[in-house]
Sequence to fold (652 residues):
Amino acid sequence: MRTAILELLKQKAGEYISGEDISQTMKVSRTAVWKHIRTLKQDGYAIESHPRLGYALRKNTDRLLPAEIKANLACTVLGQEIYYFNEIDSTNNQAKKLAVDGCPEGTIVVAEAQGDGRGRLSRSWFSPYGKGIFLSVVLRPPFSPMEAAKCTLMAAVAVNRAINDVTGLGCGIKWPNDILCQDRKVVGILTEMSAEIDAINHIVIGIGINVNIDQQDFPSDLATTATSLAVACGRPVSRIKLLSIILAELEAVYTEVKKSGFEPVLAAWRAQSLTLGRKVNVHGIDRNFSGEAVDIDDDGALLIKTPQGIERVMAGDVSIRPASSS
Amino acid sequence: MRTAILELLKQKAGEYISGEDISQTMKVSRTAVWKHIRTLKQDGYAIESHPRLGYALRKNTDRLLPAEIKANLACTVLGQEIYYFNEIDSTNNQAKKLAVDGCPEGTIVVAEAQGDGRGRLSRSWFSPYGKGIFLSVVLRPPFSPMEAAKCTLMAAVAVNRAINDVTGLGCGIKWPNDILCQDRKVVGILTEMSAEIDAINHIVIGIGINVNIDQQDFPSDLATTATSLAVACGRPVSRIKLLSIILAELEAVYTEVKKSGFEPVLAAWRAQSLTLGRKVNVHGIDRNFSGEAVDIDDDGALLIKTPQGIERVMAGDVSIRPASSS
Fold:
């Protein structure tokens, strides 16, 4: 009923429709109409009420409500099941539990805020209410567990394409899967898998995006290393539009990988990379060293040219050295 | 209260204790005593009631109740938290959800029966009520995801030691982690991990053991390939004793690996192996071939000598060819 009333308001495209008309069309009481309108307002829809003219939808909600996601969705696998939370500890944790319980491939978890948002290696991810995209996608790929690392590159390629498409910014990928804008982090991706020795049960791709966060709202430890798309663009970015394009790009690239393997994705990753050709410092689990990032190999590992030869990095932190220090 | 009454009965070692004495010692009514005794009987404790003499514990329960597990436990990490189910879909699924929710390392899930017990690659695992051990253990090892395969070898070594200790049978390990008795399967181990690219979140080791299943009770597709410890021994095997020794052996070998690495475990695995030195058929994901299993390497992969050279097998099925066909 609420969705139907919203549909009616959307059809009027900002014109007023009287409570009486809604009541008659929907065959519900004026009081029921009023209550639904109140809930829609609480859901973030800017609806103007006029005592004589009735109701007019002035502005769509900016919340990532399942109905809005579905209305914008151009996918056949991703987003067919949507779990939406005002606030949740971590969308990845929720997605992992849904996956264990057998949710279909493509199920997504979206939250307006995360109480305990996480990045790689248990680091926290700044997740303020309504200002970011906090999204987890469940995939059940027919890959071997050894190929899981490449799924993270796949996600980075899809998200970077979507961001550049929507914002026109020239963002790029820092190995393995951070997306940077003007040398500052705007996206983090956390890929987690559940696997047997021989087979992947499922993969959860967690995507955190700084969309409309003001620069001064970042905590002090991120103040000089992070930014948001809105800051970089100088204008707010539609989260719902960005989310729907991310899902479409991710579905496209995932479908391509299942059909043709990872080679095209690795090529796209190389083209979008900010790391290749740069001097980097590697902070590994048991060693630190420096060199020039020259390529990624077929497993998605970063290849680094050092005086001692080519080093292969699969895990650990890689920082890009400022151009002046090279 | 129930545990205290049980303790009182156990202290009497089969002698009668009157309802009146229990009532006075415990400071509860005779009716309350009677109700607790009834519940204890339902839990599988054989308690004799005599109108004049009172109650006597004739036989301990054979159920794997948390209180019984704790009473037999010789561990400081494993089994400190126990989740017990009369029947559950799969102990591994339950353990995975508990692990996502942050349960401590060493948490175990035990069930008398599984409605949807699973082995490797989504195969089912025969899980009749009260006749097997269906156990999952949550570990949070500081290993890389690449080392997860070796955890399955570690579990096989621990379980095989426990079984041979308790039963005196000469069971051995078929690569990677089945335990065979007289060429028939008595144990299957399903290791599942949740991991980021760089780090393991947790590992769930699922252990299914055919303990007291009658040979004729196996489904027809297992009739010639599976057996139980009781069939092989010619007498019932105490599940609670076996379970507690498995936990102790697993904790010992896990502690050793964390301290000294996997080398001692791989050596123990080699010594307990039924596969090494045998002609085997390999049914891989994308190829089939035959050869002689000569060793496992540092990653736990099986090395097979073929006319074309040494083949390395990490996944897929390996069947041991009967000695006569070699």
About this structure: Chain B has nine helices and 14 strands. The mean pLDDT of chain B is 92.
